User: Fold this.
Amino acid sequence: MRKFWRVVADSLADQGIASLRFDYPGTGDALDRDDYAGGLSIWEDCVVEAAQQLRRQSGCLNIIVVSQGLGSALAVRVAERIEGLAAIACLAPVTSGRAFLREMQIWARMVDEGLGIPEEHRLRDGVGIAGLRMPDEIAADFRKLNSTALTHRPAPRALVVKRADRPADTEFSAQLTAMGVDVREADYTGYDEFISNPAISTMPDDIRKVVLDWIGSVAAELPADAPMPVERQPSEPSLLGSDFRETPVNFGDGGRLYGMLCEPLGPRSGATVLILGTAYDRHAGWGRSSVIMARNLAAAGVASLRFDGANIGDSPPVPGVPDQVLYQDSQIDDVRAALDFLARRDLTPVVLSGRCSGGYLTFKSAVADQRISGAVAVNPFVFHWQPGRDIDESLRYMPRSLDVYREKLFQPETFRRLLQGRVDVKRAIGNMGRAFWRRVARKATPILQMLPGSGGEYAEVRKSFQSLAERKMPLYLLYSENDVGFEHFAEHFSPKGQGLRRYPNARLSIVPEADHNFTPAPARRAYLNALIDMARRFPPGE
Assistant:
């Protein structure tokens, strides 16, 4: 949703309409709370305060609230408290808190199973998904929520974007109409493709246009009153934690990239860590891992910068560059812009870190820019992306390691999914075949590399590793057991990493009981410790 909201906000600005988007406490970049005893009212109060903040900073008299899912439920509940509320848009509205949490728990099991997270590291005593846990007090209140029992008209106008397979969406729209709300309805085309996987998410452009057209029509009917005085805010407001200060920043040509600078409140004790994102996850990271990582680094005296690359999250695309930015050299330009920014802030030296596609970008950027002092790459899928390889196809149907296929073949859950028709048998067999031939190719690689004129991917990888070795730039490689990326590593350096010995600057670590995303707490600690160790190799200012 983050990218979707940014595109909508940019389009509204083009129409002369100000907007504000925010993170609830304990989500995204927002601060965490020590106490959630207030339950759901904590998040509800944030919606009201956000509306007040928008009025103060823009001078507007009328407010339109646009929300999706859980946000729609909150917006309806606090509508009476929002001064000047002219209209409310509810995309895929949640009308039953109990049903929503039950659905989310089903999604959570699917995510855990898909990632192969060990049973002992799965959330069993609360509500959460993908490493994110909803505070127990908020979850308890949310279970009681029922938006079909409204007692007041939330707003004069409403837009309800309905999902075809959710009768509750239609019932909610009908209830608003019965209460005298001027309701416009639309079908949420492409909903599943949008919300199911950030790596392959497809922006629902039709829905964006529906939202913008509706807001424009509402705004056109509002009286053109004189705006209120505007309160000026400091250019770089900061979030203060117990041992960190975070500052939102823009950098790059025209301030095209958006990120969050996290600095320790005490003296720095090492290099600054540049945290590179994975796929199309926003800079908060998978399960908010980058936020937690940055603040833990600050507690250890290490500064960091996390940011959205071009066409990701809050950073717009670069004109003339393809929409698909993953595994493209254009992302190295984003890293260089971040290095320039840190140099201007006297936050050198810099070490890089990233996971999966972020691990690939970490490696390629370290090779391309000698200002980088060290790097920690976690589960990089490859070290060299072959020209002409279809990125979208690879992201959508990423094969797993042969060991994972062997393990899953005899699990009861696999047979249940087969009986329910939830397995693409043809594609699964194809992926297993590719995994088998990768294993065969691994055995043949040492022989092929000795042949005269051997080149291609293997030569490129050897050349890149050699360039880092000549610079004596330390490189840590962290892999989870049976990760598909380790299959590619083994093709070049053998399953036990013997081939890595010719590069004394490189170090391999296999992290047990970790999924591809390093979701379990022990895996995150191992990652954090590796980063702190790398950063402290380089005192500030050297």
Notes: Residues 367 and 488 are 19 Å apart (CA to CA).
